[in-house]
Design a protein that fits this description.
eight-stranded mixed beta sheet, elongated, 8 strands, 3 helices, alpha+beta, PH-domain like, 165 residues
Amino acid sequence: MVQHGNPFIGRYLRYAVLLLVFGLFLPITFFSADPLFAVLSITIALLFTVGVDVMMYQIVRYKANTVLKEDIQASVPAVLTRSDWRGRLIFTENYIVFVPYFHKITFARRWQKVFAFDMEGGYLELLYTKSKQRRVIHFIVASPYKVREELAGRTKEERVAVDVQ
């Protein structure tokens, strides 16, 4: 299960620690001895923060393109809650796909099969049909506004929570 309140805290923690250690503390320490080590340390910090995310995005993009053979219109970091797989939720012209970083693609649906969604903060509940049965899949997404915008234009309805008093 998700170990943090925010499942994307690992990325931000990695940014903070690497930038502090390699981007601030080591350059200050090495600058007096050799400025080249300070520049190298800052480069390592940038490589491990931004470079890892870019590399993972390229892997996901490659996996999605080999399966779908369509251009990606939008991509959002997401977590599939039933298995705690991290990956990206990919939106194309005809499909919505969850592409995990280190696993096979298990969720790929045509937009005609997705009929409703519900969003509460970063928690997405997607309702779709599979072999004449209605099914539900749950995600936690990093940018809910972008997902809501993509889903609102392509699904038939958005479920609205009703408070019962």
